[in-house]
Design brief:
This protein has 471 residues and is mainly β. 7% of the residues lie in helices and 43% in strands. Strand 31 and strand 32 form a beta hairpin. It is elongated, with a radius of gyration of 25 Å.
Length: 471
């Protein structure tokens, strides 16, 4: 009887491991010895730095071992560094490499696969590459996974337009980048290479996009109007890797890349959700005051700010102080909030003014006029860039002295709407929801470097490195 109970416990533990998809730390360390930049994805997939993909097979029975070594490999005698097609470790954990045979993705096809392979199981949450073909004698490793067939195309819709005359030369920090654009004019995400003005293709969406953010050049997080789900799209596969369900509609997304956390608002539920980008799971629900919008994260990642759309009250959340809520005061028709040098900066679109409040004392410091229709703010070091849409001008405010030091004219004859920083650079992009143009500003030189055409209006834009597909 005792043996039966032990076997049942072992079975449950094995199933839980396969479902949980967390590659054991000991296995991670073994792989990291040769490939220290390996990405152990939350769904269980193992991606080497060159995007070679290994599928982990969790053993039916694991052998404990203080030191991991290769028990068997194919080709025989190969090491991890040589990236063999199959590795069986001495704890019975198996790694199968995704290989390309005649243009089709598959894994090694063996006449008599080892017992360690045939009795193992893939993580049941894993996202398999598009069109992956599993050999018949290995079908048992799939479990309850829904494996797609080779006709699967993911979300991609190719653009049939002639692009021969669509070239453009991007500024240096944008070379080799990819733009993912929500236009507001249709549901789909337009995918544009930075050296072109025409979308190369689109990622099909079923609902109108509310917000769009990227993480780690690997994933898009997408919320939609009138839809209670946030989708996670894998850019390497161009598939929805996960759907995150909410009780009410999720709206704005802010990502803290240092902490690997996303903050997601749900104004109708007076909630802000804390979402882990490592496990792609909801970690915490913060109940707040009012219907939150105009969401902002301070540059140091310690404070969130939002506006109650019903009362125009501004609220702060101290993330490093047990999520303490702090009321900042009420201001008319707020379009954006920023925090710099211990001060809160609040712009009013209709009043054409900026208000400055001391954070510690909540004391009002001053208020003064800016150019017409201020719609966005970007804080960088001691400078605040204020996008004023009606005059197509970016005013630069020194936050130490609180004076306007520069005025950058966009000369686009358009109604600019958003500021998007270009990661790992001093550049910001100024985009337009009505016209196909974007301007690039160097925040160090405080100069408009270039204005480039783009064939679609830009409601939201995400800039990533050109994404490598899984080999």
């Amino acid at each position: 009887m005792r043996k039966i109970i032990v076997l049942i416990c072992m079975f449950i533990l094995t199933c839980t491991t396969a479902l949980g998809a967390q590659v054991p730390k000991q296995v991670q360390d073994f792989i990291n010895k040769d490939f220290p930049e390996t990405n152990f994805r939350f769904d269980g997939a193992i991606l080497l730095p060159d995007k070679t993909m290994y599928l982990p097979l969790f053993p039916a029975k694991s052998n404990a071992s203080e030191t991991l070594t290769i028990k068997n490999s194919y080709p025989v005698g190969t090491t991890m560094k040589q990236k063999p097609d199959m590795i069986i470790l001495n704890n019975n954990f198996v790694l199968l490499k995704v290989i390309n045979t005649n243009g089709k993705k598959t894994v090694i096809n063996m006449t008599n696969p080892p017992d360690e392979v045939t009795s193992a199981l893939l993580p049941q949450d894993i996202l398999l590459p598009k069109g992956l073909m599993i050999p018949e004698n290995l079908k048992g490793i799939i479990g309850n996974l829904d494996v797609m067939v080779t006709q699967e195309t993911g979300l991609r819709i190719n653009n049939t337009r002639n692009k021969k005359k669509a070239g453009t030369t991007p500024v240096e920090p944008l070379k080799g980048k990819t733009f993912y654009v929500s236009t507001g004019a249709n549901k789909n995400i337009q995918v544009i290479q930075s050296n072109s003005k025409v979308p190369e293709y689109a990622l099909e969406q079923e609902h109108v996009i509310n917000d769009l953010k990227e993480f780690n050049n690997e994933f898009l997080l997408v919320t939609y109007f009138d839809y209670k789900t946030m989708n996670i799209i894998s850019l390497m596969d161009e598939k929805v890797i996960k759907r995150v369900n909410f009780e009410t509609q999720p709206e704005q997304i802010i990502i803290d890349k240092n902490k690997k956390i996303a903050y997601i608002t749900s104004g109708s539920d007076s909630s802000i959700y804390v979402f882990s980008l490592e496990t792609m799971t909801l970690k915490k629900q913060l109940k707040v005051n009012g219907l939150c919008e105009k969401f902002t994260l301070s540059e140091d990642g310690t404070k969130l700010f939002y506006v109650d759309r019903k009362t125009n009250n501004v609220w702060a959340i101290e993330l490093d102080n047990n999520y303490l809520l702090k009321n900042i005061g009420s201001f008319p028709n707020i379009s954006k909030i920023a925090y710099e040098n211990g001060k809160i900066y609040i712009i009013s679109r209709t009043k054409n003014r900026i208000a400055i409040v001391d954070y510690e004392t909540i004391g009002f410091i001053e208020e003064f006029e800016v150019s017409a229709k201020p719609v966005d703010l970007y804080a960088n070091k001691d400078d605040l860039f204020i996008l004023c849409a009606q005059d197509n001008i970016v005013e630069v405010l020194n936050t130490k002295e609180d004076v306007i030091t520069d005025k950058l004219y966009l000369n686009t004859n358009a109604f600019a709407t958003n500021i998007t920083p270009v990661s790992s650079s001093n550049m910001i992009m100024i985009t337009n929801a009505l016209s196909g143009l974007y301007s690039v500003i160097d925040t160090e030189l405080k100069e408009v470097i270039k204005t480039s055409p783009i064939d679609v209006p830009v409601r939201t834009i995400v800039v990533t490195n050109k994404v490598k597909t899984i080999k």
